[in-house]
């Protein structure tokens, strides 16, 4: 079938890249946006535009709020029938479920405080399972005021999960699809290295004035080589981060008894109760425990603030409080947990020094999830992710340019279809992304279900770009560049500027104000304006290429006509 090993590898690289590249480019692009997901949240929810706060008093502010929480309606309706043993009687009403755990979370980039509770299912189908229905809230830590539940945090609740799950939540199928794509990407990276023998030269070669096929191949090779370590590392660590999830069906079927036994052994070794004692008990001062934890961290030469706090087995004699340090000053994702008896406030356990294997795992996980404060490294992540997106995008264009003449002569629409899908996935994705920001600024802040309709705008605009791309990609059959590339670039440029203007009009936070007082919002606005300028340049460049392609096609037609006359 193949005359050489290198030819076989080239085939694998081409078709693996084509079939899963449409998924990977979404992963790369929204992964890049996720580096600044909290800043995008601030842009999308103007009420949260204040400086990050330390975790406030748990006793005075957070505990009363957590006790007033109720289980989420959707979570109850979806999961309660699956967790409750119907043979024991009817389901416990949603508002009567007893609280079993409380938690609060913040980061160095989060002005708001995210809190939640887990509620026990009294008659569980699996007594050893995680039988919780959850409730959540986001508050202003300065006042304790809750933000509306239907306000969508576009950065952390939409763009970020798009990066690892495509926001396809049914049966978590999106996570599995991304995992398969990441695994195949590793094969594509290795095959790409094999087929490109002149790697050093390709690292410095880009000829934008050459024919489209040549220039996009140069850019494909260049972006692939420049960020090759980044691409390989993030594909690998992404699989590591979700390894436990991918093996979930095995661990909870064939290995479930071993899993349950391990939890019991771990509880015995750590001294942290695995189950409730079912004996009521009062709660000591959490604030005193927080101060003791801070003192413990300082004695270890790592002073810091609380990042995550959790109470397990609420109001039970076996209740304990786990307090974790905000680790934004280091790459490794570690919390240096301190665990206290909830009734007495006595320190039960301080997490011991980590093993070499644990340190490697936490370092790799921290590098991928980037909770650290290093802003230069964050921007390198953005550029690495965008380089990956460009590498895949130019691969699509090269595929079309290389085969469109052959497909036209054969009467095949393959190149036209690939081109339309590429336009949709690249410029269409950009239009959809900025469309949800515009919807965020245009829809009333107090609108019921605002977050839902913002998502409708996102998917609806992306669908329109798909239809537009297929409509305009007929030019590929005539050996020309599809005008859909240029038209969607222009649309994106206009919408990006409009989003900046709408942010100014609806909030009063224009660039001259935010650039000096609030960089999270200024950064989003500036990124939109820079992206708009790049899109305008791209549209002009594409117009030039389109004209050249039309002239070239006309030349071919003239030559063919003269040859037939001769």
Properties at a glance:
566 residues, elongated, 7-stranded antiparallel β-sheet, alpha+beta
Summarize the structure.
The chain has about 575 residues and is an alpha+beta fold. Helix content is about 60%, strand content about 10%.
Describe what you observe in this structure:
The two termini are 42 Å apart. Among the domains are: 202 residues, no CATH class; 154 residues, no CATH class. The chain has 20 helices and 7 strands. Helices cover 61% and strands 8% of the residues. The longest helix has 47 residues. Strands 3-2-1-4-5-6-7 form a 7-stranded antiparallel β-sheet.
Which radius of gyration do the C-alpha atoms yield? 27 Å
Summarize model confidence as the mean pLDDT: 83
Number of helices: 20
Which consecutive residue ranges, at least 5 long each, have pLDDT under 50? none
Helix content: 55-70%
User: Based on DSSP secondary structure assignment, what is the total number of beta strands?
Assistant: 7
SS-based class:
alpha+beta
Global morphology: elongated
The description of the largest β-sheet is: 7 strands, antiparallel
| Percent range for β-strand residues | 5-15%
N-to-C SSE string, H for helix and E for strand: HHHHEEEHHHHHHHHHEEEEHHHHHHH
User: Distance between the terminal alpha carbons, to the nearest Å?
Assistant: 42 Å
Strand order of the largest sheet: 3-2-1-4-5-6-7
């Amino acid at each position: 079938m193949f005359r050489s090993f290198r030819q076989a590898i080239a085939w694998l690289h081409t078709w693996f890249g084509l079939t899963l590249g449409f998924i990977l480019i979404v992963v790369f692009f929204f992964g890049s946006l996720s580096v600044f997901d909290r800043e995008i949240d601030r842009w999308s929810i103007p009420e949260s535009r204040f400086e990050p706060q330390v975790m406030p008093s748990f006793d005075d502010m957070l505990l009363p709020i957590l006790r007033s929480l109720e289980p989420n309606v959707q979570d109850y309706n979806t999961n309660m029938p699956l967790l409750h043993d119907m043979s024991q009687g009817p389901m416990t009403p949603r508002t009567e479920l007893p609280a079993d755990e409380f938690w609060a979370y913040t980061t160095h980039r989060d002005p708001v405080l995210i809190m939640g509770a887990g509620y026990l299912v009294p008659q569980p189908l699996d007594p050893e399972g995680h039988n919780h229905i959850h409730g959540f809230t986001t508050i202003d830590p300065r006042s304790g005021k809750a933000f509306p539940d239907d306000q969508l945090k576009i950065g952390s609740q939409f763009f970020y999960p798009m990066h690892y799950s495509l926001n396809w939540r049914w049966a978590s199928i999106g996570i599995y699809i991304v995992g398969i794509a990441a695994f195949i990407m590793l094969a594509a990276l290795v095959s790409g290295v094999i087929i490109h023998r002149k790697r050093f030269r390709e690292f410095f070669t880009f000829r934008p004035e050459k024919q489209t096929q040549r220039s996009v191949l140069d850019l494909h090779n260049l972006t692939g080589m420049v960020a090759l370590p980044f691409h390989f590392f993030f594909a690998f660590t992404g699989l590591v981060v979700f390894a436990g999830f991918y093996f979930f069906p095995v661990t909870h079927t064939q290995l479930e008894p071993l899993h349950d036994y391990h939890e019991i052994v771990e509880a015995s070794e750590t001294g942290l109760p695995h189950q409730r004692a079912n004996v009521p008990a009062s709660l000591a001062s959490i604030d005193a425990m927080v101060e003791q934890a801070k003192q413990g961290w300082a004695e270890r030469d790592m002073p810091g603030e609380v990042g995550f706090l959790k109470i397990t087995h609420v109001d039970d004699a076996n209740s304990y409080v786990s307090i974790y340090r905000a680790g934004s000053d280091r790459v490794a994702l570690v919390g240096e947990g301190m665990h206290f008896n909830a009734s007495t406030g006595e320190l039960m356990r301080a997490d011991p020094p980590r093993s070499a294997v644990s340190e490697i795992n936490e370092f790799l996980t921290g590098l991928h999830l980037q909770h650290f404060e290093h802003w230069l490294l964050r921007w390198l992540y953005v550029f690495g992710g965008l380089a990956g997106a460009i590498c895949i995008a130019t691969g699509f264009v090269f595929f079309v340019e290389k085969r469109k003449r052959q497909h036209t002569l054969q009467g095949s629409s393959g190149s036209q279809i690939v081109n339309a899908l590429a336009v949709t996935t690249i410029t269409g994705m950009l239009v959809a992304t900025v469309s949800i920001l515009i919807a965020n600024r245009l829809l009333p802040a107090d609108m019921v279900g605002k977050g839902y309709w913002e998502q409708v705008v996102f998917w609806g605009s992306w669908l329109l770009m798909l239809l537009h791309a297929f409509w305009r990609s007929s030019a590929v059959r005539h050996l020309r560049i599809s005008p859909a590339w240029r038209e969607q670039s222009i649309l994106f440029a206009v919408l990006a500027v409009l989003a900046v203007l709408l942010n100014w009009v609806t909030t009063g936070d224009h660039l001259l104000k935010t650039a000096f007082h609030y960089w999270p919002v200024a950064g989003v606005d500036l990124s939109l304006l820079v992206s708009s300028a790049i899109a305008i340049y791209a549209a002009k460049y594409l117009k030039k290429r389109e004209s050249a392609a039309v002239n070239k096609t006309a030349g071919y037609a003239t030559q063919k006509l003269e040859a037939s006359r001769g």
